[in-house]
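Troubleshooting log. The previous run stalled partway through. Resubmitting the same two chains, unchanged.
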Amino acid sequence: MTTTMTLAKAINTGLDKILESNDKSLLMGEDIGRLGGVYRITDGLIDKYGSHRVIDSPLGEAGIVGTAVGMALRGFSPLVEIQFDGFVFPAFSQITTQLAKMHARSEGRLTAPVVIRIPYGGGIGSIEHHSESPEALFAHTAGLRIITPSNAHDAYWMIQQAADCQDPVIFFEPKRRYWLKGEVDTENPALDAFKAQVVRPGTDATIVAYGPLVPIALAAADAALEDGRSIEVIDLRSISPIDFDTITESVLKTGRLIVTHEAPTFGGIGGEIAARITERAFLSLEAPVLRVGGFHMPYPVSKVESQYLPDIDKLLEALDRSFAY
Amino acid sequence: MTRAATQATESDLIQILTPDGQRHSHETYDAYLGDVDDQMLRGFYRDMALTRRFDQEATALQRQGQLCLWVPLRGQEAAQIGSGRATRPNDYIFPTYREHGVALTRDVSFSEMLRLFRGISGGGWDPRENNFHMYTMVLAAQMPHAAGYAMALNMEQHGWDEERRAAEGNAVVAYFGDGSSTEGETHESMVFASSFEAPVVYFCQNNQWAISVPFEVQSKVPLVKRAAGYGMPGIRVDGNDVLAVLAVTRWALEHARSGKGPVLIEAVTYRLGAHTTADDPTKYRMSEEEKQWALKDPLIRLETYLRDNNLVDDAFFEQLAEDADAMAAKVREDAMAFPVPPLAKSFEQVYAEAHPLIKEELAWHLEYEAGFADAAEGEQ
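Second attempt completed without errors. Output:
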């Protein structure tokens, strides 16, 4: 059955399914109960499942993630919400030193199936710490899995796949796409959550994007077609692990690769993809792998964020450079 | 000394066995010692003596280069044995990295514990077997885990009446020290546990020193006073008095178990030795202070009490020393015999589910290592 819904509603519906099917699952976070979260992603769930399964937590991110770890140790499956990307750092130690390492430190005896939902990214005209993309900081930590949907269908399924996973999963939600509508097939699941997906086939160059930039990459591919360039667009979907096979296969065909993300280019996911694809497809590359990302600066004030964020023109400019190489 | 507020002479300090081995009655806590007979008293002494001997052996092993590090607990035996013996098997314990005595009360193998310190394992023992969690090196990181675990217990025990909770309910003990009392996660844990009436007993061993920094830098008031700020009962106990510790921890567990929420216990004790084997206390504290605290040694006062009341004879101590030496020899033998797991094993433990990067890197690693074997064969 296919239903049209926003990406936000898709996550909400996915969470509903999780709570319905697994009585050990629960939601916790700041303002997620009565208010339904600052983005209303958990709207209505407290009425359906009660305040013992949709928990309005005290205001403390380390406490939220740390108590979720404790609940997981007792056999529960908590899905916690961090209110904004820039507010995750008080929980950074819990995520990287505790959650990520529980399985390894216990020699595989303990699992910590915690899902951490984080709205991320800019383009919403907000004030500082509300527009950041910290995914690379977590991707560097072994033991975590990091996924991010770009559309409603993926959002609906990937949150459920995250909840089913025995490893901790950080689920980055592209907040400026919360109100993007899409078709959700509630019977046929998406791909494996940790696989990338070719969302537009092409022959001349590949653009890898994820989360909020997938619609931008698709629009850039449309624009490039006017110049006679056929662009393949890959929605990465999983940031850790990265599905290098799907990217490699594409680049072996197209010979050109642009990677784009809102997070700063330096030390970002794009660098990892560039290095790996260079190793795997060196002789097929017609140009160096190019990255279109944020600058090496704190996320800028909203009046100038449009100059900071990757957009269609920046992607077209990168394509020009690639084709001119 | 400026640390009057932390001295074990204050009137609010719960003490049943004085440093010179006199047993006093206590109107509230005697009721929690009703079952403590002569055999149990001898058992507590034995627990403490075995713990001290293990600590001594592990320290020696580290000095001999056989352990990466050791975290001595000498002086804190009563705080650990008293509190550990107050728990039930189904209670879950979140230790710091110094709770070797609590581990004994939970039947965790001393040998297994050394797997962590010998660099064999990141954890060492199976936390599920004895409900005794892995040690946590990141200070206070275990504190919110304890609150969350206890919140989960509340969910499981939802709808139980007080009587059933008291009889069958589980609780959590979160160990921490004066140093980690400052960490934000300690604060957050206490807020969460208190707000959700989670059955946690926060057991602080205030051993006066966070490596080289004295307690008064962590807090201007006795830690127990913080309990009021979280809306939970606070108890300050002589941490070198095994009976007082046992009694107050039993009270606290009963309180938590019955659904009334968390309790904070500040056990006033002293780390007679170094923070770890990498530490040198002569650089930051006076030997006079160590001597003063040595007079309050938890083993000496119980020995005095046992001897004064003719509950033991010399043969008891001789046999105990023999048993302790045998235990230490076994621990040493086991530690030296631990097989070193191949690094390949570590790859398997990073994730619970299959992971392509792990698979790729493991394949490379095995091929690379196999190359050395091939080369060695070629030379022969």
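Takeaways: Chain A touches chain B through 48 residues (CB under 8 Å). The CA atoms of residues 49 and 288 of chain A lie 52 Å apart.
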